[in-house]
């Protein structure tokens, strides 16, 4: 089916199948579950608690580090490194991390088959600085986690992280020019000993990830907590159940050889994990609501000779990241070489999600034309994808059920040379729920479409709390109460009206910076967007110090000016209409499970504030050009700086 009108009708019909009036309420966050069993599925099983308990704390109640970074994933580590590169000392930095080690998503996620879905040469941070060559074009989770630990060690950050700790509250002390930080730290496997501490810090940087709260569907019957067999979420893979270990890229899951395994979900995680499960399980049942678009992976070992060419010029990694972003957002000059040249390069319509220079600002009445433009761009790619599935999957009925019917920008594309092939095995069974999902759970089975499927193990590949739910509020995302000048609550402020400068800071909250997509440039390569904001934050802080005496100056206050953040917010609003391309998408985490035409009615004020929460409409490359022009002015325009 390649007729444009028929394809669009199919898109609408398939999207409506998944529509649920309860929206995101159909899920529960595991850490907030009423079930004690489910709640403990997010306990940190990777931490060496005895070793951590024996370590001296890097932060004491009387300490005042210059910088407190909340989070020690990629964003937290790169934030620290960019500060160090600006001339600050690692000794002035402390990081607070909920996990028992660094790495963020790469610490928690250790499921079999895990790899980055963007080329590792542009995804793995600081490759040029460390002189590291990834072993493969798409590095494994094991390799990425090792690399992040190496970053912490190289920059002397490994002993400056307060692990198993959560920041509960930030409160600005205007008289002392600092933040008061309330912390809770746990000891032991389940935080049996909880200690509360208040410390002080001149600057705070929030780096909480967008996909950090594992969720599961609320199901009828006995619920997932009432299942008698083994159960776990892919965000914390249980190798005691499956066999193998978290230190292996393709572990031996031999404990599953006599087991009937069910996996709920067919998103990016399942695409990588399903082939590994299928290799070992006696029977594998894959429960699907919405199929993923699965393109070829093209994995290969890194060729040292090719690597020498790739890294021949200083600044090669940033140049390669810019080139990749420019391909997707059409920001590269005609005739520019596509350096990465993989399946991402063949996704011309993905700019509908991440922005592009040509359609950075679109009048509301032009939205239908814009959507039609992107759908036209996606037509050839969609037909190619459907043909690939039909060519690989031998059973025609199964192939049809594995075929996605939505534009490419509506769900993150996935890449595998083994996932689709897995369904040619007689031991692998696709349970397509026609958009409805699993109905209920019995003590021994999952039920869908009126049929019960007896199982020994359930793997929940059901994703994370939808990022749009935090509305661009970094305090809400991190679960922190943030009180700025005069006790103003950040969450209350942003609920009333979003306003930032370049998406990283706001008036009334001095010396507080963060990372996130709202009012900032976004990209398919998350690491590129993260690094851009880390560099920006470090630059603002460093230049602020230079204006009032240098890096050793104490009591420095850096704050966004009202006129600057309002001007930037207006520019964001002018480009927000182009993201109406999501209106045609099937429900997913990207649009907070809202089906086309089923969103709640909003007032004019609500729509305007929603527009303020949008990303920069021109894509990351043009966002970086905006920042470059601003830097060239050289006076921190829009930023007020003072010192005690």
TrEMBL record:
Origin: domain of life: Eukaryota
InterPro entries for the chain: FAD-binding_Monooxygenases, FAD/NAD-bd_sf
UniProt keyword terms in alphabetical order: FAD, Flavoprotein, NADP, Oxidoreductase
Pfam families membership: NAD_binding_8 (PF13450)
Keyword Oxidoreductase: yes
GO MF term (any one): oxidoreductase activity
Database matches in Gene3D superfamilies: FAD/NAD(P)-binding domain
UniProt cofactor(s): FAD
Keyword Magnesium set for record: no
Family of the protein in this entry: Belongs to the FAD-binding monooxygenase family.
Protein name: Uu.00g041600.m01.CDS01
